[in-house]
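Figure S7 source data.
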Amino acid sequence: MVKYVVFLGKPGSGKGTQAQYFSRYYGWIQLSTGELFRKHLKEKTVLGSKVEEFVEKGDLVPDDVTFSLVKDFLDKAGADSRIIFDGFPRNENQAKMLDDWSENTGAQLLAAVEFSLPDEEALRRLLNRYYCPTCGYVGNQPGKCPNDGSILVKRSDDSEDVIRKRLSDYDSYASELRSHYRRRGKYVAVDATKTPPEISKFLERVMLKNGL
Ligand code: AMP
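Tokens for the predicted adenosine monophosphate complex:
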């Protein structure tokens, strides 16, 4: 049976860092929709050209396009996979699409964790964020990727005006997502101002408690 966890949280709240930790140390599969879109952009696929404008401006890609990408990924995942959804769902409609998939396949949601962080701290982190275009590693200094030696770059959507837009979009959907997962009894919040190791420890406890 597939088991999965949903990571909610504004850009810069550390979802990707934790998803990478759980992927590296526990073999969880990280499903980052943003990362999948960036791959399509880099490889100049048909889907990439369809979503380019949305991603560059920091707008949400339409739900049907996003879900078809997610569905492709899920169809290829093994029957006993452990999956972390990183950046999906972004609104209640997407959450319902995921619920339907979960009901149809018998997958089990362990928890929906929201990484809570003030906007100004998210902005500060994103303005200092360096990204590996090869493996998706994220750091806070320029230089080389510790995983594969690629030169770390700034993401094109990490400019101040686009960041502010992404943060305000997050706010407009956050409460419907919170309510959705509260109703399902799966909502957990984590203080994302804590250090990455502290957050990992907290999440390890949440996952164990919820049937990992
Ligand atoms: P992220 O890497 O999560 O910050 O996402 C980067 C960009 O990809 C977003 O600003 C959106 O344009 C797009 N994107 C990622 N995930 C989603 C999603 N679940 N729904 C719609 N658009 C998304």
